């Protein structure tokens, strides 16, 4: 094989901090993992059944590149019913292979070399590498624990320069669980509007918002025309393995994303799209029950963490707690490694989500209640000994 077979860009990509840590976990037995960002529930039965039925009926083909008309129609109807948001089924919605593909597509569709994308730090691990791979430049906005890891209008203003083309927002946030009220989003929107920046809004956890109503970014005044709204089925519907998501936004951007999607992916799997249809129009009870259970775990996890002296904001949404481990005097990496080795509990070092995560760890409460209980007791023992 030729030397330097791997491209320079890929060589320079930092491996995911989560992956590196979980390679350690793989070699160990009896570990309680609070590491993965994935529901512990299986997909509700009515959704699985509709997928089985669709196979029986012979749904085994490609679909339109944009996704099944039926699914796009349901997505449009759902957004209109929940938020009064209107999208044209044919031109403004694209069904993707998870929100992951949508993030990649939008970056590749809009970025020219040198264009910058603002990304909050800490943030979901894929944003930076995907922006860079698309030829753009990730410009990280450092969020401060003093502000509860919230993006403030001041921080936003400070980071805007003429090369900033887009900003990637994610709320409720992975890893901090932070979300924003309509008023807070309004203040950010005014600045974004003034500088005419495109918003890529990853709202994959929107249905898992616990204390106030979720406000989709495109519902803010004037924002619809310069927002690419991303959502999917992985989290609230416990459908990570089905790989379905979608992007809604201005025709010009959705068309550009579709161009890339048609050459690289063709379409999301038809059975998964059929299942997603059922998720949107089928019974809500199982979805609401999962949400209630996450909420119960949130109360338990945050109060246990604070009780043992690890200060932890109550997350507004998603299924992550992001406690400070500073009082142990250990770095995030050391804390996670030692906890794993001595107590067999896996949490993710905060630094996997950016340097601002130093002094924090991410705990996923998408884990059974008994497991959480046991893991937190082990963690308490660990802290007492350190
Ligand atoms: C913030 C965020 N965006 C996107 C994704 C990817 O979601 P999907 O399964 O729809 O690709 C995740 C998964 O953990 C996430 O946390």
Helical content stands at 40-55%
Alpha carbon gap, first and last residue: 50 Å
Any idea of the CATH class of the largest domain? Answer: Alpha Beta
Give the strand order, joined by hyphens, for the main sheet: 2-8-7-6-5-3-4
Question: What is the number of strand segments?
Answer: 12
How many domains, in number, for the residues?
2
State the order of secondary-structure elements, H for helix, E for strand.
HHEHHEHEHEHEHEEEHHHEHEEEH
Show unreliable segments.
none
**Beta strand %:** 5-15%
Bound molecules: pyridoxal-5'-phosphate
Largest sheet: 7 strands, mixed
Mean pLDDT: 96
Number of helices: 13
**If you compute it from the alpha carbons, what radius of gyration comes out, rounded to the nearest whole angstrom?**
21 Å
CATH architecture of the largest domain: 3-Layer(aba) Sandwich
CATH topology of the largest domain: Aspartate Aminotransferase, domain 2
The CATH superfamily of the largest domain is Type I PLP-dependent aspartate aminotransferase-like (Major domain)
Judging from the principal axes of the Cα atoms, what is the shape? Answer: globular
Class by SSE composition: alpha/beta
